[in-house]
Amino acid sequence: MGSLKRKLIGEPSSSETALSPPQKQQHREDDQQQQQQQQEQVTCLHDVSYPQGYVPSNASEAALHDNKPAKEYPFALDPFQSEAIKCLDNGESVMVSAHTSAGKTVVALYAIAMSLRNKQRVIYTSPIKALSNQKYREFKEEFSDVGLMTGDVTIDPNASCLVMTTEIWRSMQYKGSEVTREVAWVIFDEVHYMRDRERGVVWEESIVMAPKNSRFVFLSATVPNAKEFADWVAKVHKQPCHIVYTDYRPTPLQHYIFPAGGHGLYLVVDEKGKFREDSFHKALNALVPPGEGDKKRENGKRQKGLVAGKVGEESDIFKMVKMIIQRQYDPVIIFSFSKRECEFLAMQMAKMDLTVDDEKVNIESIFWSAMDMLSDDDKKLPQARYHLFPKACMLVCVIVSNMLPLLKRGIGVHHSGLLPILKEVIEILFQEGLLKCLFATETFSIGLNMPAKTVVFTNVRKFDGDKFRWISSGEYIQMSGRAGRRGIDERGICILMVDDKMEPSTAKMMLKGNADSLNSAFHLSYNMLLNQIRSEDGNPENLLRNSFYQFQADRHIPDLEKQAKVLEEERDSMIIEEEDSLKNYYNLLQQYKSLKKDIRDIVFSPKYCLPFLQPGRFVCIECTRTDEKSPSFSTEDQVTWGVVIEFERVKTVNEDDESRKPEDSNYTMNVLTRCVVSKDGVGKKTFKIVSLKGPGEPLVVSVPISKARFPDNIISLSSARLPMPKDILPVQTRENMLKSTSEFLTRNSSGLPLDPETNMGIRSGSYQKAVRRIEALESLFDKHEIAKSPLIEQKLKVLHMKQELSAKIKSIKRQMRSSTELAFKDELKARKRVLRRLGYVTSDYVVELKGKVACEISSAEELTLTELMFNGVLKDLKVEEMVSLLSCFVWQEKLKDAAKPREELELLFTQLQDTARRVAKAQLEAKVQIDVESFMNSFRPDIMEAVYAWAKGSKFYEIMEITQVFEGSLIRAIRRLEEVLQQLILAAKSIGETELESKFEDAVSKIKRDIVFAASLYL
After folding, report:
1. Among 757, 786, 761, 754, which residue's Cα sits nearest to residue 772?
2. Which residues are paired to 847 by β-bridges?
3. What separation, in Å, do the N-terminal and C-terminal C-alpha atoms of the chain show?
């Protein structure tokens, strides 16, 4: 394909200027010398975890084979690789924890070669099907005796080396497959996936249930608690587990900041890991604030410098890529956290051409070789995005054949919404060095071994489903690890595009922080329980006892004991005079505060307050507390005053104003008072309410009033009102109003509060009772022997601290008790109760017919699907309708304004929701913690219409015209649907339902066709 490597040049040492030629030469020599020194100093940490009572043996497997290695490499191994291979030669398990692209696969290849030499079976598991396909291709080229099992594809299942997803390996173990009894080595790639919230539990199950005589190779990104993981494996499998850990990066990284609207790069962390604070501040000062003469905001949101509609203007991304190409920093991966933005940004590169003629020919050849696998109809498939950017649809409307011009320019896009075949073409082109600039989502950083010279982050904040947050140091390490190609680049370059003011501490945490720890994400599922109950050696309690979750919980006990001891010593060192009498007084004060709160809740309920919230009303407010740890023990809190400016009802979209009672609505009360304004690290303003006499500004603050009650910082309402001026915007007017408030308080120190009974008409019995008890307590305070004691306030604060320490000690001891008990013990009981009540198991825990069906379903919500099957719903439907209904189990993306399916399909969805509600309520009654509404909303009808059309025989381009979703997302959903149908075929077979079995097989034949199931290019 012609030489694709480019001549390397030294990177600029300062923020804006490149080096002169003599400087470059000197810089290169310095770098080479430094790299040589680094190579000599590369070390790794090697530790080993032994199970209790284990006696190490001196015999090694290598000795049995005349010390000849199972595999030799044409390059010198790094120390961590050599150490790991020694462990394998000794026949002992090893965990290799190293950075992305450090060369962990070398260890996996050795384990496979060793197993094949010894005529043993080896399993290689990976977290995703695409990675399994790639590894199969890679291993098949080197070792011919290799098979693949991913659920989608099965190739040579009797091979000595089997590549599979971790889910397939788990399933084989539950079914007691012959293969599991023959396995000598199991390789778990990307084992840090174990912390994944949804799928992580599969790794724990697979490791705990693994054959007792097998040995393991765990490959992981850097995790700070690798030793803890190895300790767990050693304990569960009663065998040594080595840890080989290295922080070494074969190619050192430089980290730059590109400020939004700026024109240059600022080096903030050099290749030695030094953080340059001065350069960081220069970068932030170079930020061009949006809106200051450079209309770079569209609907309040920066579009990476693109002016909507003004395509001619160069965006920040365009400037960035241009600079990367000029400085020969390519190939570059540009990470964005949104599929839509990936495409949008790539389209801004339309004018740029990064390839030579030979490369264009090669790109076209590879592209059409792949596309020849598609039918003529699928080649016309519109990858239209009209729904994404209506104003810029001319930029974003792309058909498969129109993707080619972009690729021929050396520019690609990679995200989960692309057609799988297109995604694989782009991966191959990138591997071959034909793509110089790739726009990708975070998923590109996982597993795929495709490094680049430069990595760019288009944003340093991401939406995590709940809020926008800074990306964590672990996420940054994972993605930045793609920078720097071993043996090609002297250093890798990471560039952060920053468009928010960022504190140096935040930047340091992100750029220099530790990798995320490997913590258990274990959770129970009904499929897991039923499979455990059904299998011969299965025992749910045993699985829980051996889980990494339980291991980590038990590990905390010594630390908790230590914490409790320190706190007990601190508490016992607090000597207080007349402690018993003081305790009595303290308890009376706590009662007094509690009663005051009860009265306040009654008085300040909207029912009584609403008629008195007119503008001009004086209101007593609690000052913002600065020291929460040092509470006040006087019976009066520190308060200030304000004036009600405005009072209005908060309307909701679905609210019926006419029928709702006033006290059942929510309100907002705007109050003028004195505040001190300050800013936090992110530039967010905070307002502290202070005394009228204190320093501060006269500001209006919003006080939300819910239908339940007022917030706690409102103390009382005055019976007096201040005449309201027409305009309160001028600062002087507001100052005069607060001055009038002070004068009123000088004349009436109490503030003339509204009398609850006389003015507000409160007659409730609970109010009268609380008032009488408060009066009784006030008389006790006056008579109490300790009340006149000197330094009473300080003594009470010391006692309060002592009481808090006692509460902390109790909490820690409670935690210790729960840690020593079996994790999930109560949930396990509750879930077993559900299975008994719904008829999945007998009272003696023998699996019934329903249970046998749910055992087979691991790719969808097993109980609801089983209930639908046993209710006869699936049997009564036409195949197309059944497939459409099942799509609700596999579609998880949230669509805005998704079109409703036709009436008959909507009726089916209603049946599904009714079944889901019944299942959820059964769980709730059995004391399983579940939100019924959230559970029901997890089934979504968004693609019912599209899947119905697909099952009816429509072409893929036709169904894309009736849905808003990304092509790749729909294909992934249909493939998951096929997976569920295959599981239902096995389920129907297990209970002898031949009619349903043939119906499910018919459904598979209707959906398994064309582009949706086009074979992977790696196979």
Report:
1. 757
2. 841
3. 22
Q: What is the mean pLDDT of residues 759-771?
A: 86
Q: Is the dihedral of CA 509, 510, 515, 516 positive or negative?
A: positive
CA proximity to 313, closest of 351, 342, 260, 259: 351
Q: For residue 333, what are the β-bridge partners?
A: 438, 455
* CA distance linking residue 887 with residue 924, whole number of Å: 26
Q: Whole-angstrom Cα distance, residue 182 to residue 180?
A: 5
- Which residue from 418, 317, 409 is spatially nearest to 363, judged by alpha carbons? 409
383-398 pLDDT, tens digit each: 433 333 333 332 223 4
| Cβ atoms < 10 Å from Cβ of 341 | 19
Q: Which of 123-137, 227-241, 567-581 has the highest average model confidence (pLDDT)?
A: 227-241
What digits encode the pLDDT tens for the residues 622-638?
887 765 555 555 545 57
DSSP assigned state of 275: B
The dihedral region occupied by 992, where left means phi > 0, alpha psi between -120 and 50, and beta the remainder, is left
Tell me how far CA of residue 218 lies from CA of 230, 551, 683, 996, 1010, in angstroms: 9, 18, 44, 41, 37
**Whole-number pLDDT of residue 300:** 35
Q: What is the mean pLDDT of residues 716-728?
A: 90
Integer Cα distance of 67 and 881 in angstroms? 63
Angle CA(753)–CA(599)–CA(754) in degrees, nearest 5?
15
**Phi, psi (rounded to 5 degrees) for 697:** -115, 150
Rounded CA gap, 164 and 135, in Å?
A: 9
Q: Which residue has the higher pLDDT, 380 or 275?
A: 275
| Per-residue model confidence (pLDDT) at position 708 | 55
Residue 538: predicted pLDDT: 77
Positive or negative, the CA dihedral 611, 615, 620, 624 is: positive
CB 835 within 8 A of CB 530: yes
Write the CB contacts of 459 (distance below 8 Å, at least 6 apart in sequence): 336, 337, 497, 499
- pLDDT for position 998: 95
Nearest-5° angle of CA 477, CA 479, CA 482? 105
97, 136 in Cβ contact below 8 A? no
Burial 511-538 (b: 16+ CB within 10 A, else e): bbeebbebebbbebbbbbbbbbbbbeeb
**Of 207-216, 284-293, 314-323, which gets the smallest average pLDDT?**
284-293
Q: What is the 3-state secondary structure (H, E, C) of 631-682?
A: CCCCCCCCEEEEEEEEEEEECCCCCCCCCCCHHHCEEEEEEEEEEEEEECCC
- Phi/psi at 306 (nearest 5 deg)? -85, 130
Q: Are 13 and 267 in contact (CB under 8 A)?
A: yes
Beta-sheet pairing, 121-126 with 161-165: parallel
Minimal CA–CA distance to 574: which of 813, 801, 809, 790?
A: 801
**Predicted pLDDT of residue 117:** 93
Beta partners for 848?
none
| pLDDT of res. 6 | 23
pLDDT, position 447 = 60
Backbone angles phi, psi at 581, to 5 degrees: -65, -40
As beta bridge partners, residue 245 has 45, 97
- Looking up tokens 């693994």, which residue turns up? 210
The answer to whether the CB of 305 falls within 8 A of the CB of 357 is: no
Query: 537-565, pLDDT tens digit by residue?
Result: 778 999 999 999 999 988 878 888 888 89
Rounded average pLDDT over 660-684: 76
- Residue 317's CB is within 10 A of a number of other CB atoms, namely 26
- Rounded to whole angstroms, what are the CA distances from 570 to 576, 577, 804? 13, 17, 11
- DSSP one-letter string for 853-901: HHHH--SS-HHHHHHHHHTTHHHHS-HHHHHHHHHHHH-----TTPPPP
Phi, psi of 992 (to 5 degrees): 75, 25
DSSP H or E run through 383: strand 382-383
